[in-house]
Write a structure and sequence with these properties.
Blueprint: E1 5-6, E2 18-20, E3 25-30, E4 33-39, E5 44-51, E6 57-62, E7 71-76, E8 81-85, E9 90-95, E10 102-107, E11 114-119, E12 124-128, E13 134-137, E14 144-149, E15 156-161, E16 166-170, E17 176-181, E18 188-193, E19 202-203, E20 215-216, E21 225-230, E22 234-239, E23 244-250, E24 255-256, E25 259-260, E26 273-274, E27 282-286, E28 292-296, E29 305-307, E30 321-328, E31 334-340, E32 344-349, E33 355-360, E34 366-371, E35 378-383, E36 387-392, E37 401-405, E38 413-418, E39 425-430, E40 435-439, E41 447-448, E42 457-463, E43 481-486, E44 491-494, E45 504-505, H1 506-514, E46 523-528, E47 534-539, E48 544-548, E49 553-558, E50 565-570, E51 583-588, E52 593-597, H2 599-603, E53 610-612, E54 617-619, E55 626-631, E56 638-643, E57 648-652, E58 657-662, E59 669-674, E60 681-686, E61 691-695, H3 708-719, E62 727-728, H4 776-779, E63 781-782, H5 801-804, H6 814-819, H7 824-839, H8 863-880, H9 883-892, H10 896-906, H11 911-916, H12 922-938, H13 942-951, H14 955-964, H15 968-978, H16 984-999, H17 1003-1012, ...
Parallel strand pairs: 49-53, 62-63
Antiparallel strand pairs: 1-61, 2-3, 3-4, 4-5, 6-7, 7-8, 8-9, 10-11, 11-12, 12-13, 14-15, 15-16, 16-17, 18-21, 19-20, 21-22, 22-23, 24-25, 26-27, 27-28, 28-29, 30-31, 31-32, 32-33, 34-35, 35-36, 36-37, 38-39, 39-40, 40-41, 42-43, 43-44, 44-45, 46-47, 47-48, 48-49, 50-51, 51-52, 52-54, 55-56, ...
Helix pairs in contact: 8-9, 9-10, 10-12, 12-13, 13-14, 14-15, 15-16, 16-17, 17-18, 18-19, 19-20, 20-21, 21-22, 22-23, 22-25, 24-25, 25-26, 26-27, 26-28, 30-31, 30-33, 31-32, 35-36
């Protein structure tokens, strides 16, 4: 699986969640996986995982039978039981006999096919492995906590329950209960059978009171003992024959941390018991605080128990133990493996009771990991279980020498950073915004910064102090400051020596130094350059800003990413090449990693900020967002990145090549770091709660998997299908169809028992709870439709009476109304009673109208009687919960204020009550409105609530209500309608609304809000985030109109560049034309268009649909060079000539164009992009010709040609040379404008070198053109395709286009024409020396690589066959032979190697000699190369055989050079004697 790893923490509160096989393989359930760990007496190693459960693993057991020891079984809270093959790590079978969470599981030690499981409802299921059958029993209606199969009787199973009951059942008799063991009064945590058959005499205290302290026989020799551990702090030993307890062991009270355990207080406890094999009188149990105790059942008092791990401090667990699993080694040494709440797995020697080793585990996401720059091999981990781990990875005695730090940490540790000089000083950031510093070499609590972030801390970095912290005397300011970046987008600077002081926000310094008035984008990451000169800050909008310390002056802005920046890393400053010191790698929420070369900007800071839109390198391959990266401290330009696609990728940045891909994690990765001591080792951590160490060279894959993101999305959609609402329509005359639910209701997540907290975090979305049931009415709409078929005459169809029937309204006076539904005699008597009340002075005895049995008479009597009736009716309504009726009764009786108060208390206010509330006074009305507003907000009627606030003149409160519920449109309309235009709240509303719209991707609407708020800069930037042509064009226009000149230029250039890439030259010119300051870029695009139209080899692929060309790009004069056409178009269309002044002068334009940078040429750049880069230098060349600067002209012309050559486009380079110099003479730059370069002795060496190199390549292309034009096959010679194929042009192979042109040539045979060129420029002795040294150096490097490869293979994997050994023996020989023939001494070297085998030392010495030889050569020879001199010699000598045009002196010079530098080539033998 990997080298070393820290697995996820075993699940808590499970009776049997770990087990060890007879071969020493430990399986532990952690989250929804089972981790397999190979254990021995000296060490342990994680070997794999069993993945498949959808919910938390609640039980695990191996089959302890010969031949099946690799088979294991697991259970889960999702109700499933799964059988696994631990060797192949595959699922064998899944049983779904349980309907609820499985809480206990055990594989019978006597029957190799029997597995017994129990669930929280009390159901016991027997699983038969060989047949796949299951049988269920229901012995007790209680929650099962644990169970254990007897090792002596296959059908006997002990089951422990939550309420303290233990039941022995016989599974062969349908779960018949044999004994009920009563004695415990709380949860049964564990059951363990004695491995020794029979019930011999033990020291016991009889449960019935007899026996005293003497040794007595507890049984008759049959059956065996059963031990149980309970939450009631006791261990009981039971007789399985009598069904009674024979011994009770109370846990000893041990002192811990200076205080004893109070025996009267039941602490949080999990009591696990284990009966060692073959030891009838010894029992192991856990204790209160993680201690393990060995009980001697034959003794009494304090001599009865012995504590584990007393030989040295710190051996025991410090939290409660959940599981103990035994294993017997081949030397009969018995070990015990324990898991605990302290997230450690320990291995114990049952003979010495000492801890042999400890394996730390992780209980959360691995958010951060970093190696100390001072302490070698000291690895710090920030984990989501609220702890920091510091691992000394270089310890030889203890592979997992780890310390945990938890003091002062109350939430997930999300960021870590070691101090760059102070050993042991570790800063950390947490999920709740806390920043602190730990001294890992002391036991002191951490220092906590008094300045908290509002959101999660994502990044910590040490760097030089900046103002105001950098002010003051040298002794008073810190050497390093701690910088923290959090989710709210703020970067704080902390003083590590005074964390109690207030931290400073660096945004203020950035604004003051750079005179920024607009809103800064929220920051998401920062990275200081190792030398502390500059800092790179990533932002939420995808922009990366680079600032110069200490004033934080903005040097450049990288606008490459368009999503939030997640990680930034500078290349280390101990690279062999100084050019790599300025590399900055960045990763964002898109899947591409960009690398920028900022060395020139850092070393030579520009006057103003530069905008970079082109990366130095692109690293493509990941399929999801980048979360972390690290540069290799051992290699140059080697980078490892981790991503949400679940893989780690190693890159060769300079080659843009993927080297190795690691896929050992399950879930996305969050952190990565390179080992500081082993260049082949990388450490990664992620969502799966694991830290893994792996080797780059041992990975099977080189690139991330394709399409993994889409696959995971489909699986997620299958796991949680969205329930769609469908209208069920009727058909025929059958009426409406019945409602149907979309899928079955899924039960909610339940615990196996009270307090059963399984290890894990709330953040874990891999083990997600199931969906709660949804009522059918919420899922389905029923549409009733009248039948369309003809009605039958015999059976007419009537409308549904239920739909036509109206619901009768509820009576306001239900009590009095019910009195009118009595028998007739009672109703007649009521008439008599009412008459007596109205017409006599005294009412009849016992008759009180409106009360009691005469309540209904209150309606027909006087007002006091009516009030009494109302009171009785109100009591009835209150009991029934009809408060609205009570309100109306009070309203009718004139108690308006009471009605409003009751409606307010019961939430029954309505529009009608509010309309009459003013009758009760302004105060009562205002209170009622405010209460009604709260009621409406609870009902999500925010617009209505705001309108009611306006009725009591609370305008600002109404606006705030709308804003707080994101009803920005309505809030803005209200403010503009009721408040002045300069109201500050209006700008605040626009800004908040724009932020929400921008976050949701509505960029156009957000821009309108920014414009309305007066933030034109932000409006332009947000429109440009779409990054398409139309958006960039609009953003540029908006910025130009608003006066944001710099931004307008930047956006216009980006838009024009995209249009030019799509060959829309007209559109590109239109975008740049409104801005006069961009004239030089218009000239550049003009040159690019002319170059694209003139080159005979157009870009590959069909042109874009929006392609368009200007009239000046139409085919021109046949003999005119491209530079002459450029000057003509410039004069006619742009007014640029030698006489131009001001902003149109060549001096000004050339100075502007020099600020435009282009990347280093590579073979991965598309041809269209190459044309843009080449045209840039061609533009500079033409401007230099206007200034009569011949030296600059030659250098720029050389650059223009070299772009295509270095990009691998040989034919395009040859065509450009022909267009620039039709006569083949680089001194003649223009015939139309009489521009001839005059070579002088005083000109610079660099200019001479550029001119000679350019002339050599022009001659080189003309030489091949002459050869291909005249002949393709000579009768007595070899065809051009047989020419030496091992020639090298500037260190790289000749393009394949040359061979294609060879094949396309004519097949006729004739003599060669006269050679009309001066080929002497091709035969340069210094360049021949340089090229020969480079070839020799390349050959040595190939032999060294083959030697290292052979050595690594011989050490890592033994040879399996003689063929493999033979291949590896032949490989270096072949490689060395190939490399050896590349220089003039190749034959001698090969002979020497055949006699004496080469060694690493000899090859290194040769390499050093060649490197010295190269270093001694002038720089101009290496900067301005020539075509391969040996190749040119071979071509000239080949031409001389059929053409007399090659002079004798030229032939002799070619032979001399060939003899010196190419004698070892096979093709040279034909021309050398």
């Amino acid at each position: 699986m990997n080298e070393r790893s820290l697995p996820a923490s075993p699940n808590w509160y499970c009776s049997r969640c770990s087990d060890v096989s007879s071969s020493g393989l430990l399986g532990v359930g952690a989250k929804n996986n089972i981790y397999l760990i190979h254990v021995s007496a000296s060490s342990c190693r994680v070997t794999g995982e069993l993945v498949g459960h959808k919910d938390l693993v609640s039980g695990f057991s191996f089959c302890h039978h010969v031949g099946q020891s690799h088979i294991c079984v697991s259970s889960s809270t999702d109700g499933s039981v799964r059988f696994w093959d631990s060797d192949d790590k595959v699922l064998i079978r899944e049983d779904a006999a349980h309907q609820t969470s499985v809480t206990a599981l055990h594989w019978s030690p006597l029957d190799k096919n029997l597995v017994v499981s129990g669930d929280e409802k009390g159901v016991v299921v027997c699983h038969w492995y060989n047949t796949g059958d299951t049988s269920s029993f229901f012995p007790e209606p209680r929650t099962i906590f644990c169970l254990s199969c007897s090792p002596h009787t296959w059908s006997c199973v002990a089951v422990g329950y939550k309420d303290g009951m233990i039941v022995l059942i016989d599974v062969s008799r349908k779960g018949e209960v044999m004994h009920r063991l009563r004695g415990h009064d709380d949860e049964i945590h564990s059951l363990a059978w004695s491995s020794v058959s029979g019930e011999d005499a033990l020291y016991c205290r009889s449960e019935d009171g007899d026996g005293g302290g003497m040794g007595v026989s507890a049984g008759d020799g049959k059956g065996c003992y059963l031990a149980s551990g309970s939450k009631d702090q006791t261990v009981r030993v039971w007789s399985s024959t009598r069904g009674k307890a024979v011994m009770t062991l109370k846990l000893p009270f041990m002192k811990k941390r200076g205080s004893a355990v109070d025996p009267g207080v039941k602490e949080r406890l999990w009591l696990h018991v284990h009966w060692p094999k073959g030891r009838a009188a010894q029992l192991v149990s856990s204790c209160f605080s993680g201690e393990l105790v060995m009980w001697d059942l034959t003794r009494a008092g304090k001599q009865r128990w012995t504590l584990f791990g007393t030989s040295s401090e710190g051996q025991n667990h410090n939290r409660i133990v959940f599981n103990m699993s035994p294993v017997r080694l081949q030397d009969d040494r018995e070990l015990l493996v324990s898991t605990s709440m302290d997230r450690e797995i320990k291995c114990w020697d049952l003979t010495s009771l000492d801890c042999l080793w400890t394996l730390p585990t992780l209980g959360g996401f691995v958010y951060a990991l970093t190696f100390s720059p001072v302490g070698a091999g000291c690895l710090a981990l920030g984990v989501g279980d609220n702890m920091i781990r510091v691992w000394n990875t270089l310890t030889t005695q203890n592979q997992y020498d780890t310390r945990s730090f938890w003091q002062g940490i109350k939430s997930k540790v999300t960021a870590l950073a070691w101090h760059p000089q102070k050993e042991g000083s570790l800063s950390f950031g947490t999920d709740d915004g806390k920043v602190g510093i730990y001294d890992v070499f002391s036991n002191k609590p951490p220092q906590i910064s008094s300045s908290y972030h509002r959101k999660t801390v994502y990044t910590l970095a040490w760097g030089p102090p900046v103002p105001p912290m950098s002010f003051g005397a040298a002794g008073g300011k810190p050497s390093c400051s701690l910088y923290s970046c959090a989710g709210e987008g703020v970067i704080l600077q902390h003083d590590p020596s005074r964390l109690s002081g207030e931290a400073t926000d660096i945004d203020k310094l950035i604004r003051d130094t750079n005179s920024i008035k607009h809103k800064l984008s929220p920051h998401t990451d920062l990275s200081w350059k190792p030398d502390g000169k500059v800092v790179a800050i990533g932002n939420e909008d995808g922009c990366i800003d680079v600032y110069e310390a200490p004033a934080l002056k903005l040097l450049c802005s990288i606008q490459q990413h368009h999503k939030i920046i997640n990680t930034l890393r500078w290349h280390h400053d101990h690279a062999s090449s100084a050019e790599l010191h300025g590399l900055l790698a960045s990763g964002s929420s898109n899947a591409i990693v960009y690398v920028h070369d900022l060395r020139s900007i850092v070393e030579n800071p520009p006057d103003g900020p530069v905008v970079l839109t082109e990366p130095y390198r692109r690293l493509c391959g990941h399929t999801s967002k980048i979360t972390g990266m690290a540069w290799s401290p051992h290699h140059d330009a080697r980078l490892v990145t981790v991503s949400y696609d679940g893989t780690a990728q190693v890159w060769d940045v300079l080659q843009e090549a993927a080297l190795s891909n690691y896929r050992g994690h399950h879930g996305y990765l969050l952190s990565v770091d390179w080992s500081p001591v082993d260049p082949d080792v990388i450490w990664t951590g992620g969502k799966d709660f694991t830290l893994q160490e792996w080797r780059v060279s041992k990975q099977e894959f080189t690139k991330p998997p394709k399409g993994k993101k889409n696959t995971e999305l489909k699986e997620k959609m299958k796991a949680n299908p969205k329930q769609k609402k469908k209208n069920k329509k009727t058909s025929g005359s059958g009426g409406a169809a019945p409602p149907e639910t979309n899928g079955e209701a899924v039960k909610g997540e339940q615990k196996a028992a009270a307090g059963q907290d399984l290890s894990g975090e709330d953040e874990d979305d891999e083990v997600s709870s199931t969906n709660s049931p949804v009522p059918a009415a919420a899922n389905v709409e029923i549409q009733r439709k009248a039948p369309v078929t003809a009605r039958s005459k015999d059976k007419p169809v009537f409308p549904d009476s239920n739909l036509q029937k109206k619901k009768k309204p509820r009576s306001m006076l239900p009590v009095s109304t019910s009195m009118d539904h009595r028998p007739k005699d009672d109703l007649l008597q009521d008439c008599v009673t009412l008459a007596a009340v109205r017409h006599s002075e005294a009412p009849p005895a016992g008759c009180v109208p409106g009360q009691g049995d005469h309540i209904h008479l209150g309606l027909f009597s006087d007002r006091p009687a009516l009030r009494r009736m109302f009171e009785a009716e109100e009591e009835s309504h209150v009991e029934a919960g009809h408060y609205d009726s009570v309100v109306y009764l009070r309203l009718w009786s004139g108690d308006l204020e009471g009605a409003l108060q009751l409606a307010t208390e019961k939430g029954e206010l309505n529009d009608h009550l509010l309309s009459i509330a003013p009758m009760a006074g302004f105060q009562a009305w205002s209170r009622a409105v405010e209460a009604f507003v709260k009621q409406l907000c609870l009902q999500e009627q925010y617009l209505k609530a705001a309108s009611h606030l306006l009725s009591i003149n609370k305008l600002y409160e109404a606006v705030e209500l709308l804003r707080s519920h994101k009803l920005y449109r309505e809030a803005v309309a209200l403010v503009k309608a009721r408040l002045p235009a300069d109201e500050p709240v209006l700008k605040e509303l626009y800004t908040c609304w724009a932020a929400v719209l921008e976050k949701d991707g509505h960029f156009s609407a957000a821009a309108k809000c920014y414009l309305a708020a007066g933030a034109s800069f932000d409006a332009a930037k947000v429109i440009a985030r779409k990054n398409d042509v139309s958006s960039l064009r609009t953003a540029a226009s908006l910025a130009r109109i608003s006066g944001e000149v710099a931004l307008a230029q930047s956006l216009a250039l980006r838009c024009a560049k995209d249009l030019a890439a799509d060959l829309d030259w007209v559109g590109a010119q239109e975008v740049l034309s409104p801005q006069e300051t961009l004239l030089v870029h218009r000239l550049h695009l003009c040159v690019a268009e002319l170059l694209a139209a003139t080159l005979s080899d157009p870009p590959a692929g069909s042109p874009a649909s929006g392609a368009s060309s200007n009239t000046w790009a139409l085919p021109g004069e046949a003999r005119a060079s491209i530079q002459d056409r450029v000057r003509g178009v410039w004069e006619e269309q742009f007014g640029v000539s030698q006489e131009s002044v001001g902003s149109h002068s060549a001096t000004y334009l050339l100075q502007e164009l020099k600020s435009v940078e282009s990347p280093t040429p590579t073979a991965n750049i598309p041809l269209r992009q190459l044309q843009l880069y080449s045209s840039l230098h061609l533009t500079r060349a033409v401007l230099s010709s206007l200034l009569d600067d011949d030296g600059q002209l030659l250098k720029e012309a050389w650059q223009a040609v070299s772009w295509f050559r270095d990009g691998g486009h040989f034919c395009v380079s040859a065509e450009l040379c022909r267009l620039l110099y039709p006569d083949g003479d680089v001194r003649v730059f223009s015939r139309k404008y009489s521009k001839t370069l005059h070579r002088t002795e005083e000109e610079e060496e660099e200019v001479k070198a550029a001119a000679n190199s350019l002339q050599a390549f022009v001659t080189y292309h003309r030489l091949y053109e002459h050869w291909w034009k005249n002949s393709t096959r000579v009768q007595n010679g070899v065809s051009p395709s047989d020419e030496p194929t091992d020639r090298v042009v500037n260190g790289g192979g000749v393009s394949e286009s040359r061979e294609r042109e060879n094949a396309a040539c004519s097949t006729t045979t004739r003599t060669f024409d006269k050679l009309d060129l001066d080929a002497s420029s091709l035969l340069s002795e210094p360049h021949a020396v340089c090229q020969a040294a480079q070839r020799s150096l390349g050959g040595i490097q190939e032999r060294l690589a083959a030697m290292v490869l052979q050595h690594s293979r011989a050490q890592s994997v033994p040879l399996h066959s003689g063929e493999e050994e033979e291949e590896e023996e032949e490989s270096p020989t072949q490689t060395s032979t190939t490399g050896g023939t590349s220089d003039s001494h190749g034959s001698a070297d090969a002979a020497q190697r055949s006699e004496e085998p080469e060694t690493l030392l000899s090859l290194s010495a040769k390499m050093s000699e060649h490197q010295k030889q190269l270093a001694a050569l002038p720089v101009s020879i290496k900067v301005y190369p020539h075509p391969d001199v040996v190749e040119c010699c071979l071509v000239l000598l080949r031409l001389s055989e059929s053409s007399p045009s090659v002079s004798e002196s030229l032939q002799q010079a070619a032979k001399d050079l060939l003899r010196k530098h190419g004698a070892g080539l096979k093709a040279s033998r034909r021309f050398l004697p």
